[in-house]
Design goal:
3 domains; alpha/beta; 7-stranded mixed β-sheet; binds S-adenosylmethionine; Rossmann fold; OB fold (Dihydrolipoamide Acetyltransferase, E2P); 23 strands; 440 residues
Length: 440
Amino acid sequence: MARRPQRRHQRKRPAPAAFAPVTLEILEIGARGDGLAEHAGRRVYVPLTVAGDRVRAALGEPRGDGVAATLLEVSEPGPDRVAPPCRHFGTCGGCALQHLEDAAYGAWKRSQVSAALARAGLAGAEVAPTVRTVAASRRRATFAAARRGGRCVLGFNERSSHRIAAVTGCLVVEPAILDLLAPLEALLCAVLPDGGTADVAVAVLDGGIDLLLTGGPEPGLDARERMAAFAETHDIGRLSWRRSATAAAEPVAARRTLHARFGGIAVPVEPGAFLQASAAGEAALVEAVLAGVGPAARVADLFAGLGTFTFPLASRVVPGAAVHAVEGDASTHAALVAAGRGQAGVTAERRDLFADALGAEELSRFDAVVFDPPRAGARAQSVQLAASAVPTVVGVSCNPATFARDARTLVDGGYRLEQVTPVDQFLWSSHVELVGVFRR
Ligand SMILES: C[S@@+](CC[C@H](N)C(=O)[O-])C[C@H]1O[C@@H](n2cnc3c(N)ncnc32)[C@H](O)[C@@H]1O
């Protein structure tokens, strides 16, 4: 006779103490924008809280050196808690800090820069107040889209999730982007198959809006016709599709040549090319870079991109001003070369600055060097700069941690970190940009 399978023990066990709701005092806001508390000797990360909040929270999974928690209730609000202005705040993962009073928010961004420098042993560096940008000024954003069972959703990913929060209003992006969201959702519903997903990058450029769809199956004739008609109806400058983030983009509707303008020079922009997130953020970074470089004539612009700093540096009224722009990405470098043709004093070089940084000897022909690497920072280049005799180095960064690491290398090489200026162009997020000026 076959043995009957043993019945599983079904008596409900009490929830482990670690998952029970607890009362917490929020001590400060951490680097990712979550509130930090202590419980039973462990650090607890509670999203959507501010310092001084007394909250009830459910402890969850381990996170780094502590444990993640879910906010259940704010029992007593901290002094800097305000009502978030956007109705999607809390669900949408695009913003982390709308519930923080404005002056405290600016101070928190600045403190992220100071703290990163202090961790690298550079607590003495002067950190200026955060340069702020305003709402509705973000000129590029990437949305997620999905079609499930005939329903479509276009929005940002929800907090800590791959689910998409439908965005029917957004206080961060430019109105031109916001106006496009509803018709874009209808387009995606028509062109995506059931179960299909895509990322949609929207950028407002000189000449019109640039739309880049990434993912989903290759659009067939019908989908391409719909996309082209959409571009026509909504006066889209260019609409392209690519299979993945590393694949080349195919133009579906290329109605106008799109440009970015730096120092008065129009630079052609390829689909997906890097551009600072807002015009105001870019202006603040350029201003701080120009102030840092000062009257230095011969300048190297490393990780130059499309020439955000190259062209304003080249157009300064400085005798003998010359800028050498070094960039690793082939099409970005080509766009800068095309725009720089005929521009007095601009030279360009395509080079991988991680594998083949400019050496200390090569650097000696410059009076100043600007570097603006991706989030990983410029470790190899900083080692060469530290060994160089360049009088002024200006570092631009979107990651205070890697900037602080590279700054430490420069300071150990004899540079003085004169000033750091935080720039907030990712409004209400935990991200902060900065410009640091080094001299020897
Ligand atoms: C943060 S963006 C800055 C671009 C430009 N300075 C600006 O403000 O628009 C970083 C740039 O570094 C380039 N880059 C990334 N890795 C690189 C590498 N290993 N060597 C050279 N350039 C690289 C990217 O293509 C991108 O243009």
